[in-house]
Amino acid sequence: MIAELGHYALMLALGLALIQGTMPIAGTRSDDPTLIGVAAPTALAQFAFVAVSFGALTICYVTSDFSVFNVYENSNSAMPLIYRLTSVWGNHEGSMMLWVTILALFGALVAAFGGNLPVKLKANALAVQAWIAAVFELFILTTSNPFLRIADAPLEGRDLNPILQDPGLAFHPPLLYLGYVGFSISFSFAIAALLEGRIDAAWARFVRPWVLAAWMCLTLGIAGGSYWAYYELGWGGYWFWDPVENASLMPWLAGTALLHSAVVMEKRGALKVWTILLAILAFSLSLIGTFLVRSGVLTSVHAFATDPRRGIFILVILMAFIGGALALYAWRAPLLKQGGLFAPISREGALVLNNLFLTSACATVFVGTLYPLALEALTAEKISVGPPFFNATFGPLFVPLLVAMPFGPLLGWKRGDLLGAAQRLLAAAFIAAVAVAATFAVQHGGGPVLAPFGVGLALFVMAGAVIDLAERTMILRIPLGTALRRAVGLPRSAWGTAFAHFGIGMTLLGIVVVTAWGAERIAALRPGESVDITHYRLSFDGVFNRSGPNYREVVAHFTVRRSNGDILGSMEPSRRTFPSRNMATTEAALMRRGVSQIYLSLGDPAADGSVPVRLYFKPLVLLIWLGALIMFVGGGLSLSDRRLRIGAPRPRVAKAEAPALQAAE
Amino acid sequence: MTRKRRRLVLIGGALGVLAVAVALMLNALRDSIVFFNSPSDVAEKHIAAGTRIRIGGLVKPGSVARGDNLKISFDVTDGDRDIAVAYQGVLPDLFREGQGVVAEGALDSAGKFNADTILAKHDETYMPKEVADALKKSGHWKDAYRQRAAMPVEGGDK
Lengths: 665, 158
Prior knowledge:
Largest interface: A-B, 65 and 53 residues
CATH class of chain B: Mainly Beta
Number of helices of chain A: 22
Order of helices and strands of chain B: HEHEEEEEEHH
CATH superfamily of chain B: Nucleic acid-binding proteins
Helix content of chain A: 55-70%
Shape of chain A: globular
Distance between the termini of chain B: 68 Å
Strand content of chain B: 25-35%
CATH architecture of the domain at 1-165 in chain A: Up-down Bundle
Mean pLDDT of chain A: 88
Strand content of chain A: 5-15%
Oligomer: heterodimer
Structural class of chain B: alpha+beta
């Protein structure tokens, strides 16, 4: 009954989406306020029905209703409640449901809180949002229905893929989807602006909070996925340049560029056409990501059971939306009034530079990810494009971006003073130079040559962010109390910028240090033997068995000592066997030392009683994810900025403002 | 600076960065891509020793031999041809005889494949796509495997 209710609610949601997608457009064409007024209530109702549908599926999972095929395939009554809940989206059908639910949620949020938006812009944007929703709801109903029943219900489910039985599944997919789908809002607003044929600086102000929120979620989602892969897959890697990872990185890069270009548009009225294009691209890349992950063209942990019909359906959606959006852009963009130009050395110039490098980096990831697919389709030759490609392309493009990054916030709008900015960054450059010299000295000429420069760059970026704040608060130059008052009075977005940039520096520092000075040992150990890594000694005490709710595990007990013999604690990596799927997973053991980690994972025990172990020392590795967390906090600070919170001016004001701005150009 | 010159700087900068990006990509595509080959391909193509390639197929049942120090050797087969693979390290969780596997590394002069990466993750019904295609090509794609991958369910109305 519950499943049928969910199925029916989804059909009704599709019907509502079709109304929401057509009436408001007709209304804005014919200036009919009644039709325009249809948009907001249908958006809210559509979300309500999608939510009912998603809720119904969740209930089926929580109550372990194995007469529902999807639940049977991906759940098991022995699983703890948290995994029964998260397995709702631990499969293709359910994850598409989550996608659509979040999409409808964003539409409803715009409908509910977009009171200060120009009426027509809001109606058109909601209509575009509804097209996306309608197509994906149709996709679910026709090719990926999670509510199908089995005639004679089995007593037990097949269980969730053990790799996914992890708390990470509770956070990673929803955050990632909040990011992916969050970019649908800027996409819808971009299309709405193109449909209307007018765009002004206020547009950027409406869109920026949505982009920021999506970007924050995507940042945390990617970082969370990276940490999950790091500890779950047992290889100690945090980023594999796997196509699925790239699929999430591309919208992040485009979204980051969009975030910055929207600032220029909001503050200076320039880069309008470019910002619109980025808004289209960011969401298009999210769609491509969905296609890559969901269609089964790629092999990865994320490719669940595949069905060619789905791939073709998503490909058609992709071509319709991306092709349609770009065609509309090509047709209408020339009609949009161009913004003013500015001096190359200025805040705007710096932001353009940021956009250039980010989009180029995004393009290299795009080529690296899709080239193998294209080549295989054209020549049947199979290739893999791995880390060497991305290190050779993405890296060199990101370095100048990071070098330029601290300069940006120190340059003034319109006409900046590069020399002045450089002088203010002298302290940061000094810190970086000392770091480079110190790391070289510590290495005694050995070790990776580029690593000290990487450390220097990371510290330059971090110090640059601090200097930016110091300059704004004038700390050390005026009495402390006054400086603190200035700090409090500083716009939150300035704090946000500094935090986000500082976070990038932290992440870079973590990556450089762990890549250059991480240590790895592989050994086969018998009980009583020990293995050394850097200044730690791990001794293997023996194995014992333990059983979990739906698995058995063999646990190895290790005692960790410092080189001088002090006991630091114990580590218990294990191998779990899930009888329901006859599958084993490795559970690595991690010991934190400051922001560094000792990482230990087991292989399959050999016949002679020895256990193969992989042991890593990962110096400063936690900075990689802490940096992302700081970026998230920075985004949050920006989002709480009074100007964004109060948001856009009232429509009347916006109309008065727009011509004034255009006249000034 | 005149309006025209500003525009020139902007466009010039954009083209410059783009050119650098394209150059980097072309260079990297020449040097750092890895071709996938089935054991039959390896036999036909006479791939030079030391060239980085990926090979894939099934781990031949009965061929896995473990040595000291986590050394392991096994044969990868596509039904027609076998290729001997040597690897040292901890194998992924789902490495099993008769299962699909992808290995990355290079051939030595004796024709043995020295792998530095073994990929066999994912779940028990999973078959790397390259491996499936290689098996289909060699005509040894077992229907049984496909059935298991499709997971037929009694009463399932899909």
